[in-house]
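dude i think i finally got it to work??
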Amino acid sequence: MFFMLKTTSIEELNRLSQAFTIQMNAIGIKTFSEGQSLVRAKSGLASIFNELIPGVKPSSGLRVIPNKTSHLRYLLPLHESKLMDKGIRFHDANSSEIFFNPFSNDIKNRNMLVTGLSGGGKSVFVNKLVHHLIGDHPTVILDKGGSFKKVTEYHGGSYLKSGFNPFQFKDPIYLREIILSIVDEDSFNKLERGRLLKVIKDNVDQCQSFHDLVTILKDHFKDIDLYFEEIKDYFTDDEMNFQSILYVDIEDYPKGIVTPLIIFILEYFKRIPVNEKILVFDECWSFLKDHTSFIDECFRAFRKTGAFPIAISQSLRDFSHLNSDLASSITNNSYFKIFFPQELEVTNDIASFDIANINTLEFKKGVFSECYLKTSDNRYRKTIRNYLSPIELQLFHTEAGADLKFNQFLNQFKDYFESHQEAVNAYVRLIHDEVNNSFYFSNQHQNYGEHFVHAR
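look at this
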């Protein structure tokens, strides 16, 4: 609480300040005088002027507490809050407009780690990033449970839900990782792993398919082919072209095939012939606890090439509980760290200042969620408030049963539209613009009144 005392002279100001201090002390309130020393009964307006400047350490002994630069946010009318010059539109904690662009030219490491408890807004935040960037950057989404399915369908993405060809990429290190993800870990110590890699290197050029490779490996590792018996139907010989948007939900596959599938997708992403690309990696870490070296190599490669991988987890502890090396690999390679509400402790990377900001994050269901952005070099430390447009709200929400009316609308009217995206836009306009005629839709959801289509 601040009190500003005004009068016509220094003498009167000293007397008034003395009386005010006595009155506050009488009711149990301790005061700190900014402009003078009441104890020494002399004016401090000139002698400690420099010490009133925020950030200057007191030296004269007349000041009781330092005037930190953080005090400025209470004293100065800062009309502009800034994160980046342009990019995806968000807001700060005071609802002022700010922008975020992970592909800004001055950012060399774009790796991002997003953590927070379930229901806090992680998938909504990442959905928003993807929604606004996906048109200009090839995107691969490794989903768990369908959080990103609607945004993929909206943008016309490809859905990988059958099988894959692990022999599409013939890098020996990658192929060894695929095989190790299927066999018993205890059967391959460090020596056996080296021997496995050598056999792959010596024979990969002779093989026409993954089945051929496994057949050769059988001659060197007894009965190794039996490990593949249960999942062999998920392996194909068809090579997949690079897609502008590739979506995979690991819950579409049996548990035994998930780890080799993830390794295949990571290799696929690395080989997309574009540097600025997006990878969404949604809470799949439990399947990779035995593949730390491969994951570390992947994220280092992403960092060097300018890709934008987004790793999602419920907390930083998730990684350390699985594998401390995996935790170090992901956190150390991530420049952007996005925190949603969670329990944290002070570490080398997270200061008490950061935790204090994380603990004040707000959430209003159906209105906004907040997260805290911190970069590894502390260049950015900012609370971000995420408001959603009607179309974003429709695409990003994951509440069970909330899409019943939407699905009924699509079943009845989808044939009237040229694309799934147009149908979604029409539905959103219908429920948010209070259109009386349910058959009357605007053709562009942001350019009202320009073009219209009648569906009858």
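The CA atoms of residues 36 and 43 lie 5 Å apart.
im so relieved honestly
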